[in-house]
Automatic annotation (TrEMBL):
Organism: Haloterrigena alkaliphila
Regions that span the bilayer: 52-70, 107-125, 131-152, 159-177, 203-222, 252-273, 293-315, 327-343
Any single GO CC term annotated in Swiss-Prot or TrEMBL for this entry: plasma membrane
GO MF annotation: an example: branched-chain amino acid transmembrane transporter activity
Keyword Membrane belongs to the record: yes
Superkingdom per UniProt: Archaea
Membrane protein topology class: Multi-pass membrane protein
Pfam families in the cross-refs: BPD_transp_2
Localization annotation: Cell membrane
Record key words, sorted: Cell membrane, Membrane, Transmembrane, Transmembrane helix
PANTHER family reported for this sequence: HIGH-AFFINITY BRANCHED-CHAIN AMINO ACID TRANSPORT SYSTEM PERMEASE, HIGH-AFFINITY BRANCHED-CHAIN AMINO ACID TRANSPORT SYSTEM PERMEASE PROTEIN LIVM
Record's keyword annotation contains tRNA processing: no
Protein's recorded name: Branched-chain amino acid ABC transporter permease
Length: 363
């Protein structure tokens, strides 16, 4: 079986190489025309966020401008979808900086976003009418505490044992909601959170701007020495320990760095829906969808999970929306399986590397 797989990969690689050779006479001049812009970026920001060629710069620039101006060229459905996708992109990127980079696969991240959302709703319902500037930082802090509570007993484990503990954490969170229904609202949840605004354009930017800021911060961290240690832990944790670095401390840092944006995303989601309930905010299905978005876009790349979230939500709410719900989800999960089998690096990472091959030499 392995020889057949290697043979298939070799054939696919040769076919890909022939396609690149045929396209390069077309893409080469475009890349050279855009190189001055890319080189300017590489000179000032490349050391912090990664270098790129002209084609990659064009893809990133066009994508950012397209998303930033989405309310002006799209319709209501697309704006609504991109609003929710912005929140899920925060979740997918947050999961990626912890699990994608360190290789410790967490199924417990929905507990983090749920902790933030429930803290906001419970403060407003049980304590008082606090302003956003009070509930948001408190909710993110509680998320950080919950993240540490999950991380401390689990990070000395690895593989399925680590994943199992994070999975159990979500189940415990979910089961605790019903006994404390006077405070949490039980199965029906709490509708105590004020929606930011009912203007769909303004609401989009309430979610889009934090997503961009978080993406920039996480890419910066991923490209720093901290990100390199996270990657080294995934590749060879024993070598990290042998180099004198405390791998457990860095894994704990990965949970802390991941928990903060998860908390921000949870708060934003609570203010998007105007309330919380266990099925929307806590169930383990949410964690699975975060992982799927990261896998589709490309794990350990930050921007790949961001793109994966927009693709995932676009399939569900725009492209396949006319299909019955069950059939729609079957198609989406089959698509995720296809990516896992034939494009394990993710769709957008493959596109990014393809543009690198199609472009010319950097300055």
């Amino acid at each position: 079986m392995s020889s057949e797989t290697e043979s298939s990969n070799t054939i696919a690689g040769e076919s890909s190489g022939r396609v690149v050779d045929r396209l390069r006479p077309v893409t080469g001049p475009i890349d050279r025309a855009l190189s001055p812009l890319a080189n300017g970026y590489n000179r000032f920001l490349g050391p912090y966020f990664g270098e790129m060629n002209g084609l990659q710069f064009a893809l990133l620039f066009v994508s950012l401008i397209s998303l930033a101006t989405a309310p002006f060229w799209s319709n209501y459905i697309i704006v609504q979808t991109f609003t929710v996708a912005s929140i899920w992109a925060i979740f997918a990127m947050s999961w990626d900086i912890q699990s994608g980079y360190t290789g410790y696969i967490s199924f417990g991240h929905s507990a983090l976003s749920g902790a933030a959302a429930y803290t906001t709703a419970m403060l407003l319902y049980n304590v008082g009418d606090f302003p956003f500037m009070v509930t948001a930082p408190v909710s993110v802090f509680v998320t950080l505490v919950v993240g540490l509570a999950i991380a401390l007993p689990s990070l000395r484990l690895s593989g399925p044992y680590f994943s199992l503990i994070t999975f159990v954490a979500v189940l415990i969170f979910y089961r605790l909601i019903r006994p404390f229904s006077d405070q949490t609202g039980g199965e029906t949840g709490l509708q105590s959170v004020e929606v930011f605004t009912y203007d769909p354009v303004a609401l989009y930017y309430y979610m889009f701007v934090p997503m961009v800021v978080i993406a920039v911060v996480l890419v910066f961290i991923a490209r720093s020495n901290i990100g390199l240690v996270f990657t080294a832990i995934r590749e060879n944790e024993s070598a990290v320990e042998a180099a004198g670095l405390n791998a457990t401390k860095f894994k704990l840092w990965s949970f802390v760095i991941s928990a903060i944006p998860m908390g921000i995303g949870g708060v934003l989601l609570a203010h998007y829906y105007g309330g919380v309930d266990p099925y929307t905010f806590v169930v383990v299905d949410n964690s699975i969808e975060m992982i799927a978005m990261a896998v589709v876009g490309g794990m350990s790349s930050i921007l790949g999970p961001l793109a994966g979230a927009f693709l995932f939500l676009s399939l569900d709410r725009i492209i396949l929306t006319e299909l019955p719900t069950r059939l729609r989800w079957i198609i989406i999960w089959v698509a995720v399986l296809v990516v896992l089998v034939f494009a394990r690096d993710g769709v957008f990472r493959k596109l990014w590397h393809g543009l690198d091959r199609l472009g010319g030499d950097r300055e």
